[in-house]
Description:
Blueprint: E1 4-9, H1 13-24, E2 29-35, H2 39-49, E3 53-55, H3 58-65, E4 71-74, H4 85-91, E5 96-98, H5 106-119, E6 123-125, H6 133-141, E7 149-156, H7 168-171, H8 174-177, H9 180-190, E8 193-201, E9 220-227, E10 231-238, E11 249-253, E12 258-262, E13 266-270, E14 275-279, H10 284-298, H11 308-327, E15 331-332
Parallel strand pairs: 1-2, 1-4, 2-3, 4-5, 5-6, 7-10
Antiparallel strand pairs: 7-11, 8-9, 8-15, 9-10, 11-12, 12-13, 13-14
Helix pairs in contact: 1-10, 4-5, 5-11, 9-11
Bound molecules: nicotinamide-adenine-dinucleotide.
The site of nicotinamide-adenine-dinucleotide has 27 residues, from helix 1.
Amino acid sequence: MKKLKIGLIGCGGRAQSHMSSFVKMSEDVQVVAVADPIEQRRMNAAKMFGCEHIYRNHTELLDDEGGNLDALVICVEPTAHDEGMELRAAEMGIPFLVEKPMTLDLDLADRVAAAIEAKGLITSVGFQDRYQDLTDIIMAEMPKHKIGGLVYGAWVGGIPGVWWWQKKSDCGGQLVEQNIHLVDELRYLFGEPLSVYATASTGIVKPGVNSWKEYDTDDHSTAVIRFENNITATLVSGCYITGCRPRCGLYIVLEDIIFDYRLRNNLIIETPKETRDIRRMADQTYTLDEAFIKAVQTGDKSLIRSDYSDALKSLKLAFAANKSMETGEVIYFDR
Ligand SMILES: NC(=O)c1ccc[n+]([C@@H]2O[C@H](COP(=O)([O-])OP(=O)(O)OC[C@H]3O[C@@H](n4cnc5c(N)ncnc54)[C@H](O)[C@@H]3O)[C@@H](O)[C@H]2O)c1
């Protein structure tokens, strides 16, 4: 199989996980170019791969290396996508893996999706839960049961440490930036939504006291998402916790089975006859990265569980929830 030449755009926190995958995949992947405005980050990434093509931003990297790359991995903060790196990659015909949320600008996202479509390009978005062994188990078991019932989902914790999380205009809010993983998992399990209604609350976190002065992200929000087959999911997001670790994940209650998916840790399956507790065994980011690399090597798009256009549906659902938080209205989706 061809060894792929990869360029990394953004060498911050999340990029580290992809970089760890690529170290393990050294027979299939060579990171040949890295870019980050922060010198220490780009130098550390370059050192990890013995890479000599080091750039301050995506523009320099694409100008110099674009024609030489087999794929790109893009891990930048949500507003940095405004600079059009995916559009340029698509126009240059370079397959890419991009982290969620792929942008906070839905018009830009639509243009990127169209450019990808025009080139028939392989893309992947970092919705890691889809690649999890625990998700595979739910997907295999659920069709044996009558679909219908309630899902309670939660992603509740503290304020993430990155600078861009403090302002909603920089991160999109917790549902768009973080709990979008569970929004996407719901779509993966139950299909396209019918409607969403959401509320949000502020006032627990005090700007300048237990957060940065600029903090204006919602402390918590609740989204009620309806799907076909009488599935109603209530998804709560919260970033006001200090010290405790509330349970996160999805609790799926069908008529004769419960799937208690404890976020990226274990899955408890309960039926009237038995209860099974299954541990996560595989590293889902590695599985996601491996699927992308194999897809680019072979041209087999079916290996990708969340490409750009599919991920865009999760992004639009999360933004519809944001709109509902602002307007107090239920948002219905065209079918
Ligand atoms: N899939 C997941 O589970 C997961 C986990 C964590 C973060 N993420 C996502 O990954 C993205 C990045 O998050 P992070 O925690 O790594 O943020 P970060 O702030 O640690 O890193 C982002 C990096 O991008 C760099 N950057 C910005 N503009 C650039 C440009 N034009 N060219 C090159 N580099 C540029 C920044 O300097 C920074 O080092 C976010 O969208 C986040 O939501 C996904």
